[in-house]
Amino acid sequence: MSAKVLPGGVDDIVTVAPEYSTDSGADPLWEGVEPEPARRLLVAGLGLFAAQGFHGTTTRDIAARAGMSPAALYVHYRTKEDLLFRISRIAHEAALAVIPPESSGAGDPAGRLRAAVAAFTAWHARHHTAARVAQYELAALEPAHFRAVAAVRLAIERIFRKMIERGVAVGKFEVSDTPATALAILSLAIDLARWYQPGSRHSPEELGDLYAGLALRMVRSGQ
Amino acid sequence: MSAKVLPGGVDDIVTVAPEYSTDSGADPLWEGVEPEPARRLLVAGLGLFAAQGFHGTTTRDIAARAGMSPAALYVHYRTKEDLLFRISRIAHEAALAVIPPESSGAGDPAGRLRAAVAAFTAWHARHHTAARVAQYELAALEPAHFRAVAAVRLAIERIFRKMIERGVAVGKFEVSDTPATALAILSLAIDLARWYQPGSRHSPEELGDLYAGLALRMVRSGQ
DNA sequence: GTCTATACGGAGATAGAC
DNA sequence: GTCTATCTCCGTATAGAC
């Protein structure tokens, strides 16, 4: 639970402890995972994958944390990798879904970028455990599963790039390199999965507002 | 070598492929690792840890890639974790060393921040393989080893925070939250370890300049 | 310092009873 | 659907010859 932090100011993050604090017992994110034992296994795997990585986690660990025997996992999932894939796909789709659609009223490029960055950032903080698995365990997915989540990742990337392109096109943003700036803004949010812990100084919403402000500065929008 | 990218524009990163391209055969970063077989093992481990993670890599993999028998590893390293620690420590210390010292002439806060971000970013792109292991395999370090690298991480974090504090103190920067802004700037560079590939559109130096510009905008410095 | 051979435990996954 | 028991292979690490 507690982050391993060196003696230092309370502001020192020291950027990720060996033990990783997990959340999400009854996260609505996993509501759709049925039946309940399957969900329990998934949430157990989620926490362990986030803390120790996919390869650092055994099926026995997962089953034990879910309060079941090792064999029970294979009733609900074909393989350990299949369990990872379910987590990764749900997380990716949820992260995509949280971005306000283009048609969401905000015709103003700055307003739209602000809303998107705030929402995407807050999601990554709130769901830092799921985000961590989604972002850092891609290499453990088998090829077909990787392709499925890569499609979602590409969609996210394009949405942010388009948002910046629009702002540039109408003269509201001023950037030297649109794709690179889009990636940089994504990096801000995604990197939360690496360092964010529930005990952090800011709530997910505060971080969303904060990073939205930084993103607007990056595209040199006064708003 | 080639990133697994979905059909799409050439700009699409799709953010990290299952196969991770490694670099560093004769990287000066590892010059100090002696004797030569120890270095070969270390570089082999580096590439595999970056691609598959520490737990996804076997000592047999490492030895084979170094052209040696599995037992040879234990002549040069106490354990597999010890090999990881050597990599992580060297990488952390090199990343710290690349940041221009406070006394480096640039009395101007904006100039100093620009130089630091450019150097730190370029380092993370150029040494993306080592950076990846350093950033994402911390949880595999045993406690004493973790503490050793955490001390370096803390030093880096403080340097960036101090730089921003100075600029704010003399009225050159305008930020709403100094520690959070420092972390955000670090995130830009660190996240390169996740997505950067040698085939990327920009050289490490170009990315350094680009991100330095973004960082200055984040602290609202015109320069 | 490097090898071959191997000890020993742990890993993913399955069989078959209840 | 869950369990206990187990198969089989693989992983880290060591022994001992050269």
Report on this model:
The structure is a homodimer of 223-residue chains. With 223 residues, chain A is an all-alpha fold. Chain A has ten helices and no strands. Chain A has helices spanning 36-52, 59-65, 73-76, 80-97, 109-126, 128-136, 143-169, 178-190, 192-195, 204-218. Residues 1-11 of chain A have low confidence and may be disordered. Chains A and B meet through helix 7, helix 8, helix 9 and helix 10 of A and helix 7, helix 8, helix 9 and helix 10 of B. The first copy, chain A, binds a DNA duplex (18 and 18 nucleotides) through helix 3.
Record the SSE blueprint.
Two copies of one chain form a homodimer.
Chain A: H1 36-52, H2 59-65, H3 73-76, H4 80-97, H5 109-126, H6 128-136, H7 143-169, H8 178-190, H9 192-195, H10 204-218
Helix pairs in contact in A: 1-2, 1-4, 1-6, 4-6, 4-7, 5-6, 5-7, 5-8, 5-10, 7-8
The structure holds a DNA duplex (18 and 18 nucleotides).
